[in-house]
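Same chain as my last thread, 229 residues:
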Amino acid sequence: MIAAGNRAERATRPPPALRDGLLIVDDHPVVLQGFRRLAEEAGIARVHEAADIVSGYRTFHRHRPGLVVTDLSFGADGLSGLSLIRRIRALDPVARILAFSMHDDPVIAARVLESGALGFVLKDSSVAAFLEALDAVRAGRSYLPHAIATGIATLDLTPRRSPLARLTARELQILSLLGKGRSYSDIAGILTLNYRSVVSATSAIRLKLGAGSLAELMHIALTQDGALR
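reply #2:
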């Protein structure tokens, strides 16, 4: 009887798309305000806001909204939004996440999806495009701008087109932070890793990118700055 009752409770539990609320994570107040208005226009009454990945994770943990919209870059912390996406997915595997960014690099978008987001939309997209992305992810469908989707498909066909295509999402974050002059200890703190894990990952990145030294790796990070900021 208890098992049957539990099954009945699960059957009547609302699906993730219908869970109340939306969390928006961005470190620019004007952007937060703009997305709040767009979310309300989309019919979402409860909108939570956070300005960094730590408060973003805590807010998600506290309120468990059905939908998350997050930026990828926060100040000097590189692509730390990827870490937030992974942490939210680890806490709630059915969370529906839309990432938005100023970068139109298909490598970055591919890593966003790899980290667990359902969709990716550019910050300079039209209001109609953003609402389309929001509706798709809210309904449990994936969303990518056509040009980005085409670029990701091309990466599969020509893996040497971009050196970043060889890196995992975590390695991409570490390279981004190295390019910003962050020390191993800094990176370990930002990404919640131990020091040795960062050193090991950096060695793996050097091998993948063919960098003979840390200085050469830093040079690569700087030349790829447009995709990593």
